[in-house]
């Protein structure tokens, strides 16, 4: 619509003027409409807007949509009970999302309750156990208990001893490597249920350097593998296999005797 006699501001106000002048409360809008009345283009635009408004009002509103709006009050307590609100798809989607977030939080929180010094390293080693192939280990056919001397003489690793309950297990191979924190890790693969043993430095206090000790055996889980970890003389020993805790329970029962 072109109204050359109007200023830019008045032209903009006239372009968005309502079709019912009784609803105009703004003084500047009233002045713009008053000046634009003499324009045939403005009258044509108003006629088109009225016809379009009449057409829109004639379109029937579906009942499920109409209940969202009330002529008296947009939020009607009599219409919107808590049951209807709960069945609303938007409310249900938000509720499901919050429940999932809460479930993940609780899962991680419960998992951390069983943490112990060195549990983070143990989980990483379980991932390594799942990806290790026997060809990367040095072939060794001996009792697992004899490898502590090998680790000391060849790699200068002290107290890398296999617990008594596992010393007679025959080995397939072993190796010593460094993890992402430059810790030296000893890995042993045995014939019994294709278990893997890991020996690694125990976690220490950052300020004092003292070993963070813990009692007994502690379980860790990662990617279908289970490990049982114990600490002795500043070195952690972990026995790992693909399976569940019950697959290690009989061995650990002997270790406690």
In short:
The chain has 257 residues and is α+β, with helices and mostly antiparallel strands. Helix content is 41%, strand content 17%.
Could you explain how this protein is built, in words?
The protein has 257 residues and is α+β, with helices and mostly antiparallel strands. It has three domains: 8-59; 69-113; 116-256, no CATH class. 41% of the residues lie in helices and 17% in strands. The chain is built from nine helices and seven strands; from the N terminus they run αααααααβαββββββα. It has helices at 8-15, 27-36, 40-58, 63-66, 82-87, 89-113, 119-131, 147-155, 246-256; strands at residues 138-139, 171-178, 184-190, 196-201, 218-222, 225-232, 235-242. The protein has a seven-stranded antiparallel β-sheet with strand order 1-2-3-4-7-6-5. Helix 1 packs across helix 2. The mean pLDDT is 82.
């Amino acid at each position: 619509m072109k109204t050359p006699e109007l200023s830019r501001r008045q032209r903009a106000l006239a372009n968005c003027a309502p079709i019912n002048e009784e609803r105009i409360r703004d003084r500047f809008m009233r002045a713009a409409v008053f000046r634009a009345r003499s324009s045939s283009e403005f009258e044509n635009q108003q006629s088109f807007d009225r016809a379009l408004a009449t057409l829109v009002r004639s379109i029937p509103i579906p009942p499920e949509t109409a209940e969202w709006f009330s002529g008296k009050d947009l939020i009607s307590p009599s219409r919107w009970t808590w049951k209807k609100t709960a069945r609303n798809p938007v409310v249900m989607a938000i509720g499901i999302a919050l429940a999932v977030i809460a479930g993940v939080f609780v899962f991680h929180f419960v998992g951390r309750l069983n943490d112990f010094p060195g549990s983070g390293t143990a989980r990483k080693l379980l991932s390594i156990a799942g990806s290790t192939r026997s060809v990367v280990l040095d072939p060794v056919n001996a009792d697992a208990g004899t490898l502590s001397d090998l680790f000391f003489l060849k790699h200068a690793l002290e107290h890398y001893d296999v617990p008594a309950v596992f010393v007679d297990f025959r080995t397939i191979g072993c190796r010593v490597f460094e993890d992402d924190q430059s810790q030296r890790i000893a890995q042993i693969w045995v014939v019994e249920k294709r278990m893997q043993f890991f020996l690694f430095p125990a976690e220490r206090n950052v300020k004092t350097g003292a070993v963070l000790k813990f009692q007994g055996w502690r379980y860790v889980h990662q990617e279908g593998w289970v490990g049982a970890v114990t600490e002795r003389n500043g070195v952690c020993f972990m026995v790992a296999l693909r399976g569940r805790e019950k697959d290690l329970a009989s061995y650990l029962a002997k270790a406690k005797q």
